[in-house]
Amino acid sequence: MRVLKPVAAVVAAVLVALLGALVLRVGPAGAAAADFGVVNDWGSGYQGQFTITNNTPARTSSWRVEFDLPAGSRVEQAWNAQQTTSGTHYTFTNLSWNGTLEPAGTASFGFTVTGSGRPTGCTVNGAACAGGATPSPTRTPTATPTRTPSPTASPTASPTASPTASPTASPAGTPVARYGQLRVCGTTMCDRTGARVQLQGISSMWLNWQSQPYAENLSALTWMRDNWRLEVFRAAMGVEPGGAYLSDPARARAQVETIIKNAVTAGVYVIVDYHAHEAQNNTAAAVAFFSDLAQRYGHLPNVIWEPYNEPLQVDWVSVLKPYHQAVLAGIRRHDPDNIAVLGTPTWSQDVDKAAASPVAGTNLMYTLHFYSCTHTTGLRAKADAALRLGLPLFVTEWGASHADGGLDGRICEPEAQAWIDWMRTNSISWTAWKLDVGNDTTNLLAPGAPVTGGWSNHLHGHAPFVVASMRD
Asked: Does 278 participate in catalysis according to the annotation?
């Protein structure tokens, strides 16, 4: 839509290879320990991370990490910790939600640095990390990584964490239990048996702007699955506006991860949507975000990645294709097989341009968005041309309204039905815009709709048409 083991008191250096990065493990025995690593390095700067581990037998209520950077290097941005700076000395303390650590519990924070200097003189909770200055690390040779493009702005992303444990099987009878691991076959998707699948579901509102936390409610999700026959839910994580991911990454990530976990519990598919219009201007942030989530959730059959919601009128070959290649490299390091849906130019309408020069890789689909009062036969013709060239499509957003989401309240149902019929004929999966309360035609819920579901008497705008289309 527009608009972180104990170690001896003697210094120990741990060598970790990640994008040719260095990792130092530091911390006195029997206390907290802090691991430092470079997650991403673009030459003129890098993204660093500290993971703090409680090595005591008791719960701790807070942590503090301090270090220095050499002249010429400075921290630009930080997340998941409170930062204070005095000259070249940096102090990071826990936030309200990540200070309490059970025995062996961990917490992490990340930051971006301008310059190549690595932290020295590190302490954790006031104890010298290595009994003095941090030793110079030794670089370990690694396989040549895929280099992330230099960002035009410092990336804001959360740190990489250990993969989560594999979940239990999806509940019997649920979409994921029924279809299993999805893959691209021809211009559509197939289930684990090779049968064609057309997923139908809805999208959240921009998570940073939703009126209530409808998207994060498990009861609401299971209600939609059972009553609307929803099979897929799209988590539209706003990226650029104030209060969205780049300015409040901890909150945004928490929302997305809640939705992923709910989808696993409910046995439905979930689209992780990087809801941006200018993501190519901060590619490193997107690479870090998707690399981390892919490492921790890429083993789930539920997850579908959408690295870029709606690019503006920018060139496919010189701008969008390199962006997608960079983000996909981050995803595929950890998740080799889940489907990724790639945004296309002009608010994800110019699928023909992507079809003329598709991104190399497997299980890739391309985004098509329509609003039926604005987009009619001309856009379908463009989509048909892309299909003839073999481009797999996924309509991750649509509405029976004008392209502004229906500010005038109008519903163009006959043309919306033409689109529904076209998607059914071509087995194109879709998610309709959007789960929220408001006056716009595309707000699915009426005022008073409870957060937990039970919305049969709270449908608004194009909701009756959307629900009927899911049930059909």
From this structure: no
